[in-house]
Design a protein that fits this description.
Number of domains: 2
Radius of gyration: 15 Å
Number of strands: 0
Number of helices: 8
Oligomer: single chain
Length: 151
């Protein structure tokens, strides 16, 4: 089976399904599974309106010190989630476990008001259009989980 065949089997069609929640852990990192879902879909031409290498993905790339291109090349290999998690462990910047846990918790706890101005401005219009009315957004990850009907 070729790498493309493997990728095709693994890639979601994001025009009809949602990527995983940013809260979902892959290789001990929040955001990683969602980023991988979007990357695979992009490579497979099934990303719909979802963007790979967006500000959320960049938070992960900055922390693990891996570029979007390197992440994408690995996803293009057809690596399964377990293989990708192992690759992350081998290639992400080595950090003490507690540092990764603290970063995960900071990401989970990030409020809209903690974001850079350009993202706050973007979300000011995005939230009323995409999040169900009367559903409060307390944290950045809530935007995704409310819009994608997980909470």
């Amino acid at each position: 089976m070729t790498a493309q065949d493997k990728l095709t089997l693994l890639a979601l069609d994001l025009s009809v399904a949602y990527p995983r929640s940013p809260r979902y852990l892959l290789g001990h990192y929040v955001v990683a599974a969602r980023t991988l879902d979007k990357c695979r879909a992009l490579l497979n031409g099934t990303n719909g309106e979802y963007k790979y290498d967006c500000p959320l993905d960049n938070c992960l790339f900055d922390f693990i010190e891996i570029t979007a291109a390197v992440f994408q090349n690995t996803a293009a290999s057809g690596a399964t989630d377990d293989e990708f998690a192992a690759w992350l462990q081998d290639n992400a910047k080595a950090r003490p476990r507690i540092e990764i846990i603290q970063w995960n918790n900071r990401m989970r706890d990030t409020r809209i008001s903690d974001l850079p101005d350009n993202l706050q401005e973007f979300l000011e219009d995005y939230i009323p259009r995409h999040v169900p009315q009367n559903r409060p957004v307390y944290r950045w990850f809530d935007v995704y989980d409310l819009e994608e009907q997980r909470i």
